[in-house]
Every structure is written in structure tokens, then in C-alpha cells.
Design brief:
The complex is a heterodimer. By secondary structure, chain A is mostly helical. Chain A has eight helices and no strands. By secondary structure, chain B is an all-alpha fold. Chains A and B meet through helix 1, helix 2, helix 3, helix 4 and helix 5 of A and helix 1, helix 2, helix 4 and helix 12 of B.
């Protein structure tokens, strides 16, 4: 069955290109799902974790992302890069999974989205790094899904706004305004964290499967 | 890491910058890529054994590249298949009448009376159908060497058989690294293969050892039968679910593509999708699409009525937001 995810990652340059995605961003090579996994698994894992998914759910979501990529026939060169193409699938899945499981955007402060940073390198540095990641996650939790995805991809994962727009299937202008809003809210959240320290687990919401 | 030169976070305070830098530095190095990749192979049917052909048969585009993976695995599978060849040869020549009996017991369909002459021929088939070096596949070839016992399946596998000679020419799949994936090989480390290995050593020992080895192989074969049946059932169920998910997504994407050019068609497709996939994981998105299509074809009032419960149920959904904006825009015109 010949099936592509044209509508979302925008390989369908032409009369049916989706919602103002530029016709072509860059040439690239087609990649099957296994090659996508090999090259971009960590990128996707990071994105999923920064979107607020628990570490214990990461493996399952990773498999779902790449299974869908496989079913879509892998990545075909187009406006979206392989990374933003995968991120668009992950974004959709995270949204769906969160809703299905009624998981709120934030989980326990001492959550397993950041615990993996423990025990690596100098203990003092690791503790500091972990603390920073916890604060980062809390600030990200204050953003809605769309802004969060935009912020994570642009600020933490180095994707260009144009590529993110292509991946998420939104106009570039919308992507820019979303990023600006995300930055503002993120900044406010970081500054607000100092004013209202939360007790660990204060906002905990069960992340169960 | 490339950054958008026109969009830097200029007003980020040192505190904000520190958090962003911490996020950038966190490369999730402890994520087990190899383990995840092996699980992905299993999910798409590249490992083990029979699942290769079945899974790939169900795959859409990219089949050729993924069959490439299977072919790559066939290279690694050569060792296990060779083991199968040796065992099949030995049983074929030493106990020519045993094989059909085993076949009959295990499958219940294999005609008897097949001589050892055919065993070597079948063992070459074992070579062909052991793309991942799966011991279970090889074991079946030994226990039921009569091709007529499962003719269509055998032919099917042969027609799609991975040809190890082709492996290096595969375009996208790095067959060598596919084959070298440690976890991809892990499923081979099963009891069937252990029995095979034991049986392979048997010809070099005495008759008692041979008998013991054969019994081990029979026992392993019997357990392999049930294990294989269970695996087959699970695979079929998974393939069915995957195919349905694929159809669901395809229908959704068709509707999305139609929205800009032909909203009436999009509306029709979205409605059809809701009927065909009532429990779709994309139901929320499909409903949004349906509402947007209704607005575009001018059924604004109906859309507004239908949207009320949807927007109440998904107040923060990005899809709901688009519906809300579209309704607002329609109200101002």
C-alpha cells in the first residue's frame, strides 16, 4: 500500500501542499524507519521527554513513533527534515497518549524524566545538572503543547522555525509567533519559579499505564 | 547545533539561558538505541524468522529497503541455516523414515513415505527460509521436511525469500549493521537453537548421544511448534491492528489533503472515517477536521452545535483551538 504522511510533513509539494508549507526546503535522502531510528532515536527521545512524558513511557512511545514512520514508508525528502518529520509524529502521539491517560502536563518534580542525569560524572555537577533539568521541565510544563513543542524543537534541539513549521504542518508565521509567545511564557515561568517554590510532588499527577 | 539566525532568544536572562543550556546539553545518552532498534525490528517484522516475510508483506513503501534488512539478516542467518543443513542431512540419511513421521505428528498434514533423498533438497530450503538465522524456522525444516506439508507457505516464503547474495546491494538499509545488531540476534538464543546446536554435534559422537540429541530436538521441536503457533497468532493480530491503523491514518490524511481544495470531499471523507474507525486514536483530529470542513462548506450552525461538546471535551487541544478560531472567523463574516 502506497501511503505517505504528505499532509503533515509536507512531501506533497504541489497543488495539495498543506497550509502554506513552502514547496521545498531542502533536498535530502530518503530514509527507512530503521535508518531513521539509528540516526535520530536520541533526538526523538529527548523531544518526547521534554514534552513531559515519563521516562517509563518513553520506550513505548519511541516504538510507536518509528512504527508509524515505517508505516508511512519512512522519510521522503521534502520541506520537513527527518528530525522535524519524526517530531511531528511524536507530537501527535504525545498529545493522544496524554489525553488517553489523562496525564497532566506536569508530573512529580522528582520525576523520572530527569533522573537519568544522576550518577554521571562529578556528583556535584550531576546534582546541579539534574536540578537545572528539573527546573527546565517545570518551566516547560507551563506551556501548552504547541508552544512547548515549538520551544523544545527550536531552543533545545536546534531546529529552524521553517523546518518545524513544515514538520508540524503550520504556516511559518504561526510558528514564529508561537515561538515568541513560548519564549515569553517560558521566561515568566522561570522567573516565577523563584517566587513560588513548590514542594516536591506538589503537582504530581499519576502517570500510570 | 544549528540555530535560526533570525530568531535568537535575545532577551533571555542568564537564569533562563542556564536552563536552556542544561536542556541542550542533555543528550539523553542513556537511551538504549540498540535495544530500541531491535524492538523496532521486531515490531516491523524483521526478526525473527517467519515474521520477516509476513511483516514485510504488510509493509507499505519502504518494503524493498526493509526486505533489505531481512536480506542482511540472512547473511548472519547463514550460520544457523548451515546448522540446520547439517542436522537435516544427518537425519535425512541416518533415519530416513523418521522425518515424515515427525512431520505427521507435529503438523498432522504431511504425507508419509518420503525418503531421505529429499532431505538434502529441503535442507537447502531451510537455508532460504532462515533469513534471520532463526532456530525455530530451521527446526521446522528438519522436523517437517516434506514440502507438501505446507506448500503454499513454503512457496510464499520462497517467492519472497531473502537472497543473501543481494544483501550488500541494498540501498538504504545497512545490511551489515542490521545483521550485527546484537539484540537482533538475541531471539535466536532460544531453546530450539540450543537443541539444534546439540543435535549438530551428535553425528560426531556415538549412537546413544545421537538418540539423546534427537530426543532433545524432538522435544524442542514440539515446544517450538506451540511457541511458533502462539507467535503466529500474535503476529497476525498485530499485523491486523497495524493494517487498520494504516488505513485509519491514510483515510485521515486523504481528508486533510482535501480540506483546502475540496472541503465537501473532506467532509465526506471525515464522516466516512468516523463511521469506519469509531475508536480511532486519531478520532479527535478527525472530528476537528470534520468541523473545519463543515465550516468551509457553509454548515456553520451545524458545526457550531457539533463543536460545543467537542470543545468542552478538549478545551486545550490544538485541534480544538483551530476549530474555535474557524468558528470565530466564520462568525465575523
Amino acid at each position: 500500500m502506497n501511503f505517505s504522511y504528505t499532509g503533515d510533513h509536507g512531501t506533497g509539494a504541489g497543488p495539495h501542499s498543506y497550509e502554506g508549507i513552502p514547496a521545498r526546503l531542502a533536498d535530502g535522502e530518503a530514509l527507512n524507519s530503521a535508518e531513521l531510528f539509528r540516526r535520530h532515536a536520541r533526538f526523538v527521545a529527548k523531544f518526547i521527554l521534554r514534552m513531559g512524558v515519563s521516562r517509563s513511557d518513553l520506550d513505548d512511545l519511541m516504538q510507536e513513533v518509528f512504527l508509524i514512520a515505517h508505516r508511512n514508508g519512512g522519510y521522503q525528502p521534502g520541506p520537513a527534515k527527518p528530525t522535524t518529520y519524526l517530531a511531528s509524529i511524536a507530537f501527535r502521539l504525545v498529545h493522544t497518549e496524554r489525553r488517553k491517560r489523562k496525564v497532566r502536563a506536569f508530573v512529580e518534580i522528582d520525576d523520572d524524566r530527569v533522573n537519568h542525569a544522576e550518577g554521571e560524572g562529578d556528583p556535584e555537577t550531576s546534582a546541579s545538572h539534574k536540578q537545572q533539568l528539573e527546573r527546565l521541565q517545570r518551566a516547560l510544563d507551563s506551556l501548552d503543547e504547541e508552544k512547548r513543542a515549538m520551544f523544545v524543537l527550536a531552543e533545545l534541539q536546534g531546529e529552524t522555525v521553517v523546518s518545524i513549521a513544515a514538520g508540524l504542518g503550520i504556516p511559518v508565521d504561526t510558528a514564529y509567533s508561537r515561538l515568541r509567545a513560548a519564549r515569553r511564557l517560558f521566561k515568566e515561568a522561570v522567573e516565577g519559579q523563584g517566587d513560588e517554590p513548590r514542594a516536591p510532588g506538589a503537582l504530581a499527577e499519576g502517570v500510570t499505564r | 547545533m544549528s540555530r535560526d539566525p533570525f530568531e535568537s532568544f535575545n532577551d533571555a536572562s542568564p537564569e533562563v539561558r542556564a536552563l536552556i543550556d542544561a536542556g541542550i546539553a542533555d543528550e539523553v545518552d542513556d537511551y538504549d538505541v540498540e535495544g530500541g532498534l531491535a524492538a523496532h525490528f521486531a515490531a516491523i517484522g524483521v526478526v525473527p524468522g517467519a515474521a520477516v516475510v509476513h511483516g514485510l508483506g504488510a509493509a507499505p513503501r519502504g518494503v524493498s529497503t526493509l526486505s533489505a534488512s531481512a536480506k542482511g539478516l540472512a547473511v548472519l542467518g547463514g550460520a544457523a541455516a548451515s546448522t540446520a543443513v547439517l542436522v537435516a542431512l544427518w537425519f535425512g540419511f541416518a533415519r530416513p523414515r523418521d522425518a515424515p513421521q515427525e512431520s505427521s505428528e507435529s503438523r498432522g498434514t504431511a504425507p508419509k513415505g518420503r525418503g531421505g533423498r529429499d532431505a538434502p533438497q529441503e535442507s537447502s530450503d531451510a537455508h532460504a527460509v532462515a533469513p534471520s538465522g532463526n532456530g525455530a524456522t530451521a527446526t521446522n525444516s528438519i522436523a517437517a521436511p516434506e514440502p507438501a506439508s505446507r506448500p503454499s507457505e513454503h512457496r510464499g516464503r520462497r517467492s519472497a525469500k531473502p537472497d543473501a547474495d543481494d544483501a550488500p546491494t541494498l540501498p538504504l538499509a545497512n545490511s551489515a549493521s542490521f545483521a550485527a545488531t546484537p539484540t537482533a540476534a538475541t531471539p535466536m538464543a532460544n531453546p530450539e537453537k540450543s537443541a539444534l546446536i546439540a543435535a549438530t554435534a551428535a553425528p560426531e559422537t556415538n549412537a546413544e548421544d545421537r538418540a539423546t540429541a534427537k530426543n532433545d530436538t524432538e522435544s524442542a521441536t514440539a515446544s517450538a511448534e506451540s511457541a511458533e503457533e502462539r507467535r503466529d497468532r500474535a503476529e497476525k493480530a498485530q499485523v491486523k491492528a497495524d493494517e487498520r491503523l494504516e488505513l485509519d491514518m491514510k483515510a485521515l490524511m486523504q481528508a486533510k489533503r482535501a480540506l483546502a481544495e475540496d472541503p465537501a470531499k473532506a467532509l465526506s471523507l471525515a464522516r466516512q472515517g468516523e463511521r469506519e474507525f469509531p475508536k480511532s486514536m486519531f478520532g479527535e483530529e478527525r472530528r476537528a477536521l470534520l468541523l473545519l470542513a463543515m465550516i468551509r462548506v457553509g454548515q456553520v450552525d451545524s458545526a457550531r452545535r457539533l463543536a460545543a461538546p467537542y470543545l468542552a471535551e478538549h478545551p486545550d487541544s490544538p485541534f480544538a483551538r483551530r476549530v474555535r478560531h474557524a468558528l470565530d472567523a466564520a462568525a465575523t463574516h
